[in-house]
Design brief:
Largest sheet: 16 strands, mixed
Number of helices: 11
CATH architecture of the largest domain: 3-Layer(aba) Sandwich
Bound molecules: zinc ion
Shape: globular
CATH superfamily of the largest domain: Alkaline Phosphatase, subunit A
Number of strands: 36
Radius of gyration: 27 Å
Distance between the termini: 46 Å
Length: 715
């Protein structure tokens, strides 16, 4: 179904349409979210974001799913599977839609994820005021086989809905952005059609801005449908916007198997601004990339020609230290500018406190359209990462339980968003697990026959796995090259601040282990940080002193001319770009780890030796947690073992960069103890947090838990 424009207002579905190309001398800034202009109490305001096809957006019309129950390995005996569920009062007094999904159970509960996606069974409408529901689910699998089942419920969205905003006065050249989508409750093929209509009301009368019909039965109608409406004809007058939807009713006498929730995604007003001097932001996080595998950081292999060229055109921080050697906590620091000790996000059920502003939120307040494409796993929507983004995609490929990266697909998804938003000031965050284990580069990139940094007597599997890791680095570098070429073709390369970094490194036996999240030695903390922006970042600068990922947020804000939030732990590194060796004293940086103890070994048994994964080599002890905290200055590094308790370590990084010779003694330890006490004092008492700072465990779904298990984060 296509949308149609009405009256004299232009509706742009594509930049290829006549009159829809952006003015080259102007950039469009989001100045107002129309969700904020809907009077309180008009619609249920929880949740305010919802996902359609893995893309999470703030939206009008979101309905909350409530989990009624889930079971694994239900053996089918013949005949339907009968279950009874209580309906919680939180669903309200109105009619409720109950949605069961099933799949064939895996051998060990999850191995079949790649083969057996969840399948929506017919939904059930439960009458107003009912306290429980009885279901008779078709068995789906053969007698003797097992299935997993999961049942959720939500309020029945109204058949007709009309929501109006407060009056808004529009500036010259204003445009409106909005996306529409249908969230099917039950099988998409059975969900009814929805008619969307957007109207602008002014004193002289009403004008229809948008009319579209989406039929969930048609695959091309799935997902979010973007629209951009020119509002120039309404300039200078108070305008109220009315969002109306009609869901085709269930025919009389028929029992409907699915229902439709209509959504208006991220309705925004954008205004043109002079483009001169403004920069976009592209932040690329290459999960698990250790600095010494990047050519510009001294790799002996030609792994990163694209990043090396980027460093030559921009600035490179030689000693960038991650604050935590694992994905969730380190990204939370990267995107808030505060240390883990302050944000407190250490595990998958933690949530970034609402009172700590995130980069996308700050940029949204300064006219940036923000989008993120991540590869699922630990940059969890449930931890709060979508805050500030109007488009947050948790990219899920066909193989949902396989965490190997998909850099090309992820970058392409980001580019598609960028093409749809041409002419708008943007922040695009891209996160890929491409170099994360398993290391399995495409054959054309499995080209390295040596491994940087490994000893001559290293175990063969250690050497081979590092070769494969280096191949993954070479592959992701080529994907970045392709991304940069497309950015140039879009005309955005010269006006975009590009930042490439990583959340932590990776160990290849340097201190007796593999992967990450078990120690705080340099191989898991030292990450690349490279910035490029013509006329904004001086070319060819190398900053030698230690800096932290918490410095990233204040630095990019400083470069973009935006004041940092008052309570960051990081500092702007912009003065160091002008004076790399700096006259000010080098500040200490901090790091810690708190993770379950995992003893892993490399495994080359898969894919004929062309893939390196890992396996447990010791029984799990669920209560055994590793807890270490440390600090470093330009010359020294301190590590304190809090759990299991152990002797402190001190290293002279200038003469012992690989941390082999512990020089802890009474002359150096007191300085480290004082620094670590300073770090630990950053902790914000839980009582100062809002009560919602912990996500309820139920919000981590089974799929996510399995993916995290495959990544090695949970057991
Ligand atoms: Zn990571």
């Amino acid at each position: 179904m296509r949308a149609r424009a009405v009256a004299s207002l232009a509706l742009c579905l594509s930049w290829a349409a006549p009159g829809c190309r952006p003015r080259t001398d102007a950039v469009f800034e989001p100045v107002r979210s129309l969700l904020d202009e809907v009077p309180a109490g008009t619609t249920p305001d929880v949740p305010v974001t919802c996902a359609v096809d893995d893309v999470i957006r703030p939206a009008l019309g979101c309905v909350a799913d409530v989990l009624l129950g889930q079971e694994t390995k239900v053996r089918v005996q013949g005949g339907p599977v009968r279950r009874r569920f209580e309906l919680p009062r939180s669903l309200g007094p109105g009619p409720v839609v109950v949605q069961p999904v099933v799949r064939r159970a895996g051998v060990d509960g999850w191995l079949l994820d790649d083969l057996e996606p969840w399948r929506a069974l017919g939904a059930r409408l439960v009458r107003r005021g009912a306290r429980h529901v009885k279901l008779a689910l078709p068995p789906v699998v053969s007698i003797g086989e097992s299935l997993d089942l999961r049942v959720t419920a939500s309020r029945l969205p109204p058949a007709k809905s009309l929501t109006g905003t407060r009056p808004v006065v529009l500036g010259p050249g204003t445009v409106l952005r909005v996306a529409v989508a249908v969230h099917p409750l039950g099988p998409a093929a059975g969900a009814p059609r929805v008619a969307f209509r957007l109207v602008a009301q002014t004193a002289p009368g009403r004008q229809e801005l948008l009319r579209e019909v989406l039929d969930p039965a048609h695959p091309e109608n799935a997902g979010w449908h973007e629209h951009r409406v020119e509002l120039g004809a309404l300039t200078g007058r108070p305008v109220r916007f009315f969002f109306s939807t009609r869901v085709r009713p269930c025919p009389v006498g028929r029992r409907c198997r699915a229902f439709s929730a209509p959504l208006w995604g991220a309705p925004q007003i954008l205004e043109p601004r002079p483009r001169a001097g403004r920069h976009n932001l592209l932040l690329i996080s290459l999960d698990t990339l250790r600095a010494d595998h990047v050519g510009a950081y001294g790799s002996r292999l030609p792994t990163t020609p694209v990043l090396d060229a980027m460093a030559a055109e921009g600035a490179l921080f030689e000693q960038t230290i991650a604050p935590f050697p694992a994905t969730l906590s380190s990204h939370a620091s990267m995107l808030t500018g505060v240390y883990p000790r302050r944000h407190g996000v250490l595990g998958m059920f933690d949530r970034i406190p609402r009172d700590i502003p995130m980069l996308a939120e700050i940029l949204a307040h300064h006219g940036y359209q923000s989008a993120a494409v991540t590869e699922d796993g630990m940059v969890l929507a449930t931890a709060g990462f979508p805050r500030g983004f109007t488009y947050y995609r948790e990219y899920k490929g066909a193989k949902r339980s396989t965490p190997s990266g998909r850099a090309v697909a992820t970058f392409d998804a980001g580019l598609r968003w960028l093409e749809t938003h041409r002419g708008e000031q943007f922040f695009l965050f891209l996160h890929t697990y491409q170099v994360h284990m398993p290391y399995a580069p495409p054959p054309a990139f499995d080209v390295f026959t040596s491994a940087p940094g490994t000893e001559a007597n290293a175990l063969p599997e250690l050497v081979r796995c590092q070769q494969l890791y280096a191949g993954e680095v070479r592959y992701v570098d080529s994907a970045i090259g392709r991304l940069f070429e497309r950015l140039t073709k879009l005309g955005e390369a010269d006006r975009t601040l590009v930042v490439v970094t990583s959340d932590h490194g990776e160990e290849f036996g340097e201190h007796g282990g593999v992967q990450h999240a078990q120690t705080i030695y340099e191989e898991v903390l030292h990450v690349p940080l490279i910035l490029r922006a013509p006329r904004l970042v001086p070319a060819g600068v190398r900053v030698p002193g230690p800096v932290s990922l918490v410095d990233l947020l204040p630095t990019v804000l400083d470069l973009l001319g935006i004041p940092p939030p008052p309570a960051t732990d990081g500092r702007s590194l912009v003065p160091l770009l002008r004076d790399p060796r700096g006259t000010s004293p080098v500040r200490p940086v901090f790091f810690e780890v708190r993770e379950p103890l995992l003893q892993m070994a490399l495994d080359l048994s898969g894919d004929g030796g062309r893939a390196c994964s890992s396996r447990l080599i010791a029984p799990l002890a669920p209560d055994t947690v590793i807890e270490q905290v440390g600090a470093r200055t330009n010359a020294h590094k301190w590590i304190f073992h809090l759990q299991p308790v152990g002797l402190p370590e001190v290293y002279d990084l200038e003469h012992d960069p690989h941390e082999h010779h512990n020089i802890a003694g009474p002359d150096l330890l007191p300085t480290g103890e004082r620094l670590v006490e300073e770090y630990q004092a950053l902790a914000t008492p839980a009582a100062d947090r809002r009560p919602d700072h912990k996500a309820p465990p139920a919000t981590i779904d089974e799929e996510t838990t399995k993916k995290l298990r495959a990544l090695g984060y949970v057991q």
